[in-house]
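Hi D.,

Good news: the full-assembly prediction came through. Inputs first.
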Amino acid sequence: MKKKDVFFGFCLLFVLFAVLPVQAQNRLTDGAETQYRRSSLYSLLIAHPQAKYASQIDYVYLGLPTPDKYEDHNLNVRRVEALTAKEAKPYEITAFLDGNQVARRLVAKWFNRDSNGVFNVDLVADRGNYNATEMDVAEARMTKRGLAMLSDAGEDLIGNTFVTVNDIVYIDKEQRAQLASAILQIVAQAALVATMAADDDDTEAIAGAIAGTAALGSIIADNLAGFKVKVTTHLYQLVWNDSIANLFYSDYWVDENTPEAERLRRKALFEQSDLFALKYLGKYKVKSEKTVMKGVHSNEDIIRKVCARAMDRNIAGLQKKFEAFKVKTPVIAVENGRVVAKVGKKEGLKPSTKFEVLQPVQREDGRMVYRRVGVVKPQKGQIWDNRYMAFEEQSDGSELTATTFRTVSGVGFVPGMLIRQLK
Amino acid sequence: MKKSCTIFCLMLFGMLAGIGQAQITVQKFEGEIPVCRWTYGGEDGDMSPMFYPDKEWVQTFAVRFESGDSSSLVYKDVNEHRKVIEFRKTDWKQRNRNLRKLDSVWFPPMFDAYLYKQDGKYGLMTENGVGVAAPAYDRIVFLYQYYASEQAWALCPLILVQANRQYALLHYTGFIVTKFCKKIEELPNAWLMTEANEFKINQRVEPESLWGY
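Then the structure:
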């Protein structure tokens, strides 16, 4: 072997060893990006059975997964019928939620309450990345660290439980669509006549193409029938503070060690309790945008796409409007000093949107605090289009898998930090 | 002469190809689409689900789609009696366009939900070929008897679907009424979940157990 070759091989090995660990350090491992604390969401549909496409909207809605930036905190009841075809009033929704004690049920879900009224902390430990054994409520309440952990879980997890009530109203644009369809059909017919009458090949080909396009347009117009919806999302937050938590742990908590008589007493107390409440934060309303037909194969696809996108816009709008509803997203990589995160147009990202970079720090007592270490903005042309069916639509940015951000201020960003949208 | 012969042959071939396209593949489905009797729950608190194909009932699925007449479906019942289903709606063009895209279609005489297969995946549609559930499932099983722990035996309009090696229960209207679970045994009480979504905004959801918590 030549000396030159040996030298070259040595250099290659050096480069590989030098570069690979750096790359590994700058990107989160698979699965790690999902391990961060998220807000929990229970979403409910207000259905209008009197309206057209009601059943299609129902099943499309119920088939949509909880947005990945939130934990699924759904109860069994996901759909409730409005009394008229018009939008439900906030007081009607509040009355339904209060009358059915939804706040209490959300708390019960947090603590996996079973039919005997027995609670456990498995879900809290899982979502908060706590050690489940350390979180034994009876023991935790006796130590300073345990108390801090319970308080932290309450503030960071249970207090960030939200209810979105989506009122989807179909906007009937069918007549307009039928008119468009009729015009296109006339064009198609005229072109067809021209094709039949044409002598030369070119004219025939052009007329044929027009006929084909117009006929296709007519089919699409028929299929679509101007499907548009207006979605109003009402946002509620579960009220959870230290005084509620103290009362809950001292008066209602039942575990496997609770004596039978005490268990029954506490079970009944919890079921009659009016301690828990939902706070109405506000609402956000959008009309669905024009549907892009690329990648859409059926009426079902259209309805799903329109509803999914309208609801995503509402969620993004509510996040902008209400500080408490904002989500944190982990930085999955830092490439050439630029932050990369799995957030995109679905979350309403624009080149002007600013994000703060937060460093999660666990204090000695176990509490988690978030310290701002910088501000970033999306890099133009590097915004991920993660909207529903964007890939099928082949829209700009849909080929990306994350958004790259440029730094506005701050240094030393590392994967695992979190970003949160600024107003 | 030669030229006109070629044109004639081409036309004939085109016609034959057209007929072929309009036909829906009729397949033997006994093995492919298991129609099952599903018992969930049982006596003395036994909650293990039993899951077995019901051969007798499968026979009633002997349905044949005869192409050519797009206004009706012809099928044979267990006793080989010829039965005809007239289509209610008349948007034949749309329905035929939709049907042509499919690999195969089955018409089980229940639920008003027709099973179809497209690109190897199963979906459900209405009799007019309008999608009820997208062709996203590796397997669909019609469940016609379902026993929930707190209910009596009942004819239950539920469909078990499998996608990405996970199971869920689907209502015939297209609702997925449970979460996707890795094992059939993990499926929650779907009967109750379906019931839970039929309340008006001014009503109290009762019994309270419908909420799940």
